[in-house]
Records
---
Amino acid sequence: MRVLIDTNVLADVLLGRDPYYDIAYRILAMCADKKIYGYMAAHSIPNLFYILRKSMTKEERREALKDICQIIKVEGIDSFKIISALDNGTFDDFEDCLQEECAVAISADYIITRNVKDFLSSRIPPILPDQFLEKYKDIIPI
């Protein structure tokens, strides 16, 4: 199974945000254990680098993001994805539209996000992290 993990779920792990940390951590652990194939959109890296600035030094941010890149793959953003996202009028948020373009490119089964409402027009179904774990608890035990 392939999943695109939205920036907010990655931030939950990196920032230890309660009450979301445990569930987000379990999803990353599933990726690390190769129970699922996890991906993130390339633009999540600079977004996270910025988000983490108040809680980590520059060096800590670099190390944390390198660690994440060892666990999940990064799907690139190219001119085709950008133009396709710009042409897509169904998303209010351009960043979310780019997430969806990356999810389509990797043939993801789901976009794991805490902002499901932002992906209602997505070609790839969005799913909340806790719903993903509940749905696949018997198939993909952790």
---
Amino acid sequence: MKNNACIGVIIPAAGSGSRMGGVYKPLEKLCGKPMLFYSLDTFQNCSEVEFVVISAREDKVIELTHLCQEYGYSKVKKIVVGGSNRQQSVKNAFECGLFDNENITHVAIHDAARPLFSSEMAKNVFAMAVEKTNAVCASRVRDTVKRTNDENVVSGGIDRDNLWLIQTPQVFEKNMYKNALDKAEKEGFVATDDSSLVAQNGVNVNLCETPSQNIKITYPEDVLLAEAIIEKRG
């Protein structure tokens, strides 16, 4: 990685957790440790990362601030209130510390509920982003994929050779990401992930192959799988 490359990380953590029964997922325990802390450990120990901003639910900002201080996450510089959707939460974090920080060359956006992201994965995706201006973690689709009609009757198959499951972090040159955010806001475009914002702005997005175990905790059964992986890692 180039010596002058410096990563600012945004962690959107303002979701409702409705598919997990309404729990606040970032502080849900995995093997006795809050889910969010696994990602914070990775970024805290990553030399390329200088600055972390978390966008949280308003009622969790003070609690998260105290916990990050208590557990020594010194790279967490700000915890801001999230927006009405993920895109707005990321924008709030970006504008509250990262864009005006002249040291930051790239922005990485990472799901708070994706705790199994590792230092090795960070090294790979950051290096690709610096070399190619952007990089998005993703894993190849392994299962057979079918297309159906509205009645769930199979109407055809899909070649999975070029199909990928998109993950995070997603890493972009800072100005590239700002331009994508600005255009999306101007046009009223709302995306489910940040690579879609950038692609909407005419940029070719690069995928960095990442293990499928970099899962997002969405349903209660995902907790069991994540804890099994954590225990296996020791």
---
Amino acid sequence: MREMRRYKQALTPAECDIVLGRNTSGVLAMTEEDGFPYAVPLSYVWKDGRAYFHWATAGRKLDAVHRDDRVSFCVIDQDEIVPGEYTTYFRSVIVFGRVRILGDPGEKRRAIEALSQKYRPGFPETMAAEIDGFWDRFCVAELSAEAVTGKQAKELMGKPV
């Protein structure tokens, strides 16, 4: 991986983990068959150094990762415009890695339950029925991180993430 030019503004691995854990959406970037980039906003859950997504069982994302499993995933944690300073106070994290579609039913179940708990917490009695009802109509993708980088505005340095 390429070294960050403004390395003094880099987030620590622990700070990157906090940012990835507390956010709900990011942009997954893949490569299309013709070589063009394809970036799509997605909901996700971050668990144990991996991002999980649910997709339809056919479509553009699935085609792209079957062709080339290398992706990047960007999460913007903060983007505050500061007009008087002609800048923004930003914080973001990018995950570089490879995506695989979970084929093992147990792995798929654990990942979709983690997604369900994040986006609809407190309803364990209905979660299983909902998952079972849609089981054959979705797949779950796992992004395993090979590198994670985060950066923030210099004005945010020293403040809690």
---
Amino acid sequence: MREVKPQETTRACAFELWMKAPMPMVTFFKKLDVSRLVKISKKSGLKFNMLMCWCIGKAASGIKEFYMLPVGDKLIQYDSIAVNTIVLNKNNEVSSCDVPFSDELLRFNEDYLKLTNTVAQSCENHDLMESMVIGTSALAQYEIDGAVGMYSGIFNNPFMIWGKYRNGFFKTTLTVSFQFHHTQMDGAHAAKFLDAVQKEIGSLTVQVG
């Protein structure tokens, strides 16, 4: 990670417009068809939440705006991406776990299982400060239509929230909310990302054994 001059990036105008805005966050909602993920999860034994996190990381890795993030009053360029997940620890409280993104699904799964287990047992957060982290929160036991994340003024990271997926006659759907800082990306970038998440879900193949 390194600081970059906003004027020398494609986010120069956005940096001037949104860095000092009282509410620079934008939230999109999208209904995803997750039928394939549910099928793969049941057939392979891979966790649905892990598969969602991998598809999110995969989609983000192909969009250059995800590698820049406003931190404090600076614009930071990152070389890698991680996906954060919330873990229920042994004390029945929640802890935070950053999982480094890998193009290899099974490698990502290994890291996901190892790191989330460590966090659950230690009750200590696992933070990857050198990566641009996409936050996620899965309220998998509850049917919600979406959520608008809180803007603390400290963390500007993009963030996705979802609840319980819903089974229909022909497909299984999941409504997600995606919050992002307008300095980092524009609406078109966010919409492209959500479309890319759906594409990754629809094209996912897994070979296990």
